[in-house]
Amino acid sequence: MSCPRFWDPHGERFGIPTYPWRMAPDGLLTRRQLRARGLRPGGQPVAAQILWSSRRSKGPRAAYLYRAQLAKPVRPFTLAKRRALDAANAARRTCPQCRRDAGYVLPAHLGTCLPCADAAPLAA
Fold first, then answer.
1. Angle, vertex CA 27, rays to CA 21 and CA 32, nearest 5
2. Which of 25, 47, 26, 18 has the alpha carbon at shortest distance from 3?
3. Please, are residues 26 and 56 in contact by the beta-carbon 8 Å criterion?
4. CA-CA distance, 29 to 34, in Å (whole number)?
5. The model's pTM
6. Sheet holding 48-52, edge to edge
7. Going residue by residue through the chain (124 aa), what tens digit of pLDDT does each one get?
8. How many angstroms separate the CA atoms of 65 and 71, rounded?
9. Distance between CA atoms of 47 and 25, rounded to whole angstroms?
10. Do residues 44 and 70 touch, judged by C-beta distance below 8 A?
């Protein structure tokens, strides 16, 4: 097997162990893979990285890997978190001019609900 461009399991070139796409050893997972298993990194440092080339980005793209055996379970979603999230979403839906819940997240470029935004040019 020829040595791929991003193959650096000892971290000599990139500073941390680096593997090409789909070549990471067992036991190392990305944040998304940990989350799919109901885990989180839990404060552990990055153990390795995956690098790959992308046509969209100029340079190589990276995904950090964490040790599965050091991962901790995801914290439960409490009632207090649910209330806070509901309050934050309600604030994003409330029009600052008419004070009504628009039923959708207000467009950032308008800053108001659509009826208020349509009425503003007519009033001028």
1. 60
2. 18
3. no
4. 6
5. 0.68
6. 18-20, 48-52, 61-67, 28-29
7. 445 788 888 888 889 999 998 899 999 999 999 999 999 999 999 999 999 988 887 888 899 999 999 999 999 999 999 999 999 999 999 999 999 999 999 999 999 999 999 886 766 5
8. 11
9. 11
10. yes
Sign of CA dihedral 78, 81, 83, 89: negative
Strands (E), the chain: 18-20, 28-29, 39-40, 48-52, 61-67, 72-73
pLDDT of residue 119: 81
Question: How confident is the model at residue 104, as a pLDDT?
Answer: 94
Return the structure tokens found at 38: 């109901």
Look up residue 4 and give its amino acid.
P
Report how far residue 124's alpha carbon sits from residue 114's, in angstroms, rounded to the nearest whole number: 16
- Rounded distance, CA 10 to CA 95, Å? 55
Tokens representing 56 are 């969209």
What is the residue whose two structure tokens read 């046509």?
55
Residue 8: strand, helix, or coil: strand
Structure tokens at 54: 């992308």
